[in-house]
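Task: encode each sequence below as structure tokens.

Item 1
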Amino acid sequence: QMQLAESGGGLVQAGDSLRLSCQASGRTFIIFNAGWIRQALGKERELVAAIAWNGRDKYYADSAKGRFTISRDNAENTVSLLMDSLKPEDTAVYYCATDLTTRLSPTLSTDLSNYGKWGQGTQVTVSS
């Protein structure tokens, strides 16, 4: 069964960069689209970025456009999120997740309910 494990979170200052990584176990990871979802204290979960199974199609929330870059390496079963120009409002727990509703699909879902497999999350704190 596929498992996801995030790493790379931490405490940084505004304007800094941070790279989050998600290591997946299980050979089926490469057929699913994946995404990074965050939840700040007292706020709803937000899909920050998503990437198609083959890495060709990507989605970014408005809050992430121009600052965040999602990528994946299917040979290594990893998906990463490079976050530049971090702001205090980026403070949240970041989760790696896979969309289990489609396989080998270029269509990226923004419906969080489609992301059926989540990691345990990694905390990102941006100080002003």
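Item 2
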Amino acid sequence: QVQLVESGGGSVQAGDSLGLSCTASGRTFSRGCTAWFRQVPGKEREFVGGINWNDGDTAYGRSVEGRFTISTDNAKNTMYLQMSSLGSEDTAVYFCAANFRMRVGVPRLASYYPDWGQGTQVAVSS
């Protein structure tokens, strides 16, 4: 059984940086695609960014491109999200998602990801 666990959320000031981690147990990321989504109450989950572990292809949401960076550590089976220049609009619950069979591409729709973590809260105050 696959379990995704996010960590690293917290409360920061506008302009600060923060890093999140997502680790999988029960399956390795190495042949699939993983992504970060975020959600605020009353809104749909928003694609933040993702990476296909097969070829390193990455994609980012328009609102975070240039500020957020996704990286991976194969040995630790972990995906990271480094966030910089945070603003109040980045306040959300951040979710890690995975599709262990996606060989190519980085889907931006949440429905393409069968496996999800529980989420970690990021709060940015101005």
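Check on item 2: The radius of gyration is 13 Å. The CA atoms of residues 5 and 23 lie 5 Å apart.
End of task.
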